[in-house]
Amino acid sequence: MAGASLLALIDDIATVLDDIALLTKVAAKKTAGVLGDDLALNAQQVAGVRAERELPVVWAVAVGSLKNKLILVPAALLISSVLPAAITPLLMLGGLYLCFEGVEKLAHKWLHPAEVDEQHAVQLAALADDTVDMAALEADKIKGAIRTDFVLSAEIVVIALGTVADTPFTTQVAVLSGIGLLMTVGVYGIVAGIVKLDDFGLYLLKKPGTPARRLGRGLLLAAPRLMRALTVIGTAAMFLVGGGILSHGVPLVHHAIADFATVVGDIPAIGRFLAALTPSALDMSFGILAGAVALSGMRALAALRSALGNRAKR
Q: How confident is the model at residue 6, as a pLDDT?
């Protein structure tokens, strides 16, 4: 009897672990869109420090990221237990913020290109100037990166929580903790590799032998292109993930997208391809539209607040 009970317990534990693994995989897939932007933003945050300080800065930000998740995961579990109805609104808010951030990034780049170039020039000048307090510069960058990570981590945790909202509490704890640890190790491990890619290329370039030098030259050429590609992919992922969250939260939009995908699926020869591509394309378009509306609203609110402030001063 005792043996049968032990086997039943082991079977139950295995079933729970299988469920946790499956849900963690689903949650990781849903949060992968945020991961692309997280990689790009954190790699950019580390840019602008001296080569020998890049890895210590990445480590400091990674530790800050773990602390962020130690705050966010219990907070999310508390919300799930006390006020589960708030999960969907939080998901929608997180999706809208993703879209807003993506549109704001594009608007700033297109409308103020000179300002972006000036910021880059200031960073390069600081690196070349021996009088600049690099410790203070690093501390500012670390604080900024941790603040950025807090927002992105909150989005990841909320999206993951939406995946496991209907599961037992222990499963929620395991999945959210696993996602938090996985994302932190994955993001900052890859960021460390990205920021040192050019250094590795330079190391190979100095090695004797044509193959090593060719590989080193290739890595030096690839490093800045990889950064640009990550930025583009990350921005597109923000619209795709954020727009998907928003469209699923608005039944009218979700059903309209599904119906349109069914219609284009009937087109001869290319229907199946279009049917597979259409939902993602429309989710992304809806995300861009929602982000543009949110950005316009925020700018209008800022302008109104400024006007009221000027009137009060008079």
A: 36
